């Protein structure tokens, strides 16, 4: 969901093992992405363009580019700092364009929904081997291997990591 390489994912708490890749779990990947963005926020003093570049290319690649260029100016459109891939510059330029569309949709002939319904979720930590993605908490039980594979992309076998976290509507 958040497209992290395995080393970054593991560094931010995602479980990856034979038969299970937490990067495909909306819960684990979102928790890890938030953790990583918090780290990047601290490293780049909240400069969102530098944070986005670092998320895309790796934080140390951005730090090296800053050192090599002698300044810390950041722009996807102007390809700053110099020396990064076109993909990284494009990533930041696209995020900037999206932010402009959301900030002033009428300026671009867009109509965005004014109301959104958010369902509060409760965080739940589950023991290893419990699968809940197809059933409410009242029906928790191990899920047969074939069913798990067809209903949950993170599971390639019928076992979840210890202390698996999920969210359920309150």
Separation of the first and last Cα atoms: 24 Å
Query: What structural class results from the helix and strand content?
Result: mainly alpha
- What is the number of strand segments? 4
Could you say which overall geometry the principal axes of the C-alpha atoms support? flat
Average pLDDT figure: 82
The radius of gyration is 20 Å
Strand order across the largest sheet: 1-2
Detail the poorly predicted runs.
Answer: 132-140, 144-150
Strand content: 5-15%
Total count of domains: 2
Q: How many helices does DSSP assign?
A: 6
The largest sheet is: 2 strands, antiparallel
* Percent in helix: 40-55%
- Topology as a string of helices (H) and strands (E): HEEHHHHEHE
Question: Describe it for me?
Answer:
The chain is mostly helical and about 170 residues long. The protein folds into two domains: about 5-110, no CATH class; about 120-170, no CATH class. The chain is about 40% helix and about 10% strand. The protein is built from six helices and four strands; from the N terminus they run αββααααβαβ. It has helices at about 5-10, 25-45, 50-55, 60-70, 85-105, 145-150; strands at about 15, 20, 120-125, 165-170. It has a two-stranded antiparallel ribbon. A two-stranded antiparallel ribbon has the order 3-4. A hairpin with a 2-residue loop joins strand 1 (about 15) and strand 2. Helix 2 crosses helix 3 and helix 3 (about 50-55) packs across helix 4. The longest helix has 18 residues, at about 25-45. The chain is flat. Mean pLDDT is about 80; it is low at about 130-140 and about 145-150.
